[in-house]
Amino acid sequence: MAEDLVLDTAIRDWVLVPLSVVMVLIGVLRYFVAKLMRSFQPPDRKALKEGQVVLRARNLKAGANFIPAKSFRVRRFYFTNEENGLLHVPKDQAQNAQAQMFSDPNMAMDMMKKNLSMIIPQTLTFAWVNFFFSGFVAAKIPFPLTQRFRSMLQNGIDLSTVDVSYVSSRSWYFLNLFGLRGLFSLILGEENAQDDTQRMMQMGGFGFDPTKSLSAEKDSLDIVQHEWVLPKMEQRAEEVLRKLVK
Amino acid sequence: MVGAAEEAQLNRLESQVDNGGGGAWEYLCLVRKLKARRSEKVLKHGLSILNDPKARSRLGGEEWTLYEQVAIAAMDCQRLDVAKDCIATLSKKFTGSLRVGRLEAMLLEAKGAWADAEKAYARLLEDNPLDQAMHKRKVAMAKAQGNISAAVDFLNKYLEIFMADQDAWRELAEIYVSLQMYKQAAFCYEELILSQPTVPLYHLAYAEVLYTMGGLENLQAAKKYYASTINLTGGKNTRALYGVCLCSVAINQLTKGRNKEEESSELQSLAAEALLKDYKHRAPEKLPLLSTMLKNMKLIS
């Protein structure tokens, strides 16, 4: 295609700009709706304790060489013994954890709220864009691209002869959907930026198993070799003092 | 804990504010961030901001944080009227808030109405059984009433859940030392060393507990921990230097010179020399006292 397509300026005024503005406004609106719907969840006692246990076990692993061997062994036994060690997870309980999480109605409710606030506006805007603006070119990017980008930039136009640097309106919608994170972090503050891509990933990978980190910590604690560093400290202190006295 | 650089900055800001140089709000922010306890200054400068409607409205949403800070400082200075006003303003703005509820309970505590304060905390804890600050208040209250064993109980219960809380371990260690329960105190100090192996003060405190417990094994360990304190402080800690001397003398007395391999180290004589040098430098009039003592210990000739 040698000659360029001429894009009507009305397309810019009535499609390109409104679409971007609407996407931004919807993002902001969704942030506030999500803020309204967020329920305060008191931290779970068991989860909290498990977190603290893991933290303390990590400290023990890192600082093991700074306490006498006897103290270390006592602590290790306290954490890892098979009867009631803090890091020991009984077999049957480990399998149940996932099932428990599903059966907790509060959790499911929360998840649903989160997903609803994401899915509903997304479907609506997509339907809106599809209905009004489908099937034509809305913008042109100022550099050439290879054929591979066709599916990304010309969604909704099934012509193989159009130059790839033209962007279809539906693709413009998708670009906005995924690309506005930087703008949101400017408007709403750094940590409040909602990222759809991240959200989607969270949706897939829910069901984090806290018992796993406990048993991982237990295994690594079991293989720690204790070597008290304090005897070396005496020699080092001697050197320090010798320098000082001189 | 406040680092030296931060403390210097805090002092600089404090003198600047005291001399009318402005920056009161920055000072208050820094105090809050470092969790320093300078209640009188906070009360004075905080109140002057709160009483000035223009300065107060300039803070925006931070105004309420300042009310809270001033309320706590006022309670610390026994200006209960000020504290009451601040809390009243806060509870008008945030009705039914947990944080304001805590302040109200603290006011009762400051008045000395222990039973009422306890009831208030119990009621607040019913809704939020995992509020750390509230549990700590309960410990502090038991301690203020002189009921040390209850404080130990509360702390132990608290540490069962929040076992990575270093401040609580430190408090427990100090209480155990005051009760002369050295074994338990040693355990707490071990926990502190584990969580922050490079803080010399924990090594020093642990060494002191070990030395106090006595016995050959403990004394030898104590000497090692004093040595590591010297190592971590670069030999600037006088207490650790004395500790090494005393430990080596005590070990000598116990073994009566039988244990020859321990004697090979010249740590104690070096420590004695370092002490002498330090005293010569900083307190020459006390030098004779030190040298007679060290001579008695047979560490210098």
From TrEMBL, chain A:
PANTHER family: ER MEMBRANE PROTEIN COMPLEX SUBUNIT 3. It is found in: Membrane. It comes from the Eukaryota. The gene is LOC105050515. This is ER membrane protein complex subunit 3. The chain crosses the membrane at residues 14-33, 119-143. One of its GO terms (biological process) is protein folding in endoplasmic reticulum. GO terms for cellular component: EMC complex. Belongs to the EMC3 family. Keywords: Membrane, Transmembrane, Transmembrane helix. It is a multi-pass membrane protein. It comes from Elaeis guineensis var. tenera. InterPro entries: EMC3, EMC3/TMCO1. The keyword Transmembrane helix applies.
Automatic annotation (TrEMBL), chain B:
InterPro entries: EMC2-like (IPR039856), TPR-like_helical_dom_sf (IPR011990), TPR_EMC2 (IPR055217). Residues 100-209 form the EMC2 TPR-like domain. It comes from the Eukaryota. It is found in: Endoplasmic reticulum membrane. It holds the Pfam family TPR_EMC2. One of its GO terms (cellular component) is EMC complex. Its main location: endoplasmic reticulum. Keywords: Endoplasmic reticulum, Membrane, Repeat, TPR repeat. It is a peripheral membrane protein. Component of the ER membrane protein complex (EMC). Part of the endoplasmic reticulum membrane protein complex (EMC) that enables the energy-independent insertion into endoplasmic reticulum membranes of newly synthesized membrane proteins. Belongs to the EMC2 family. This is ER membrane protein complex subunit 2. It comes from Elaeis guineensis var. tenera (Oil palm).
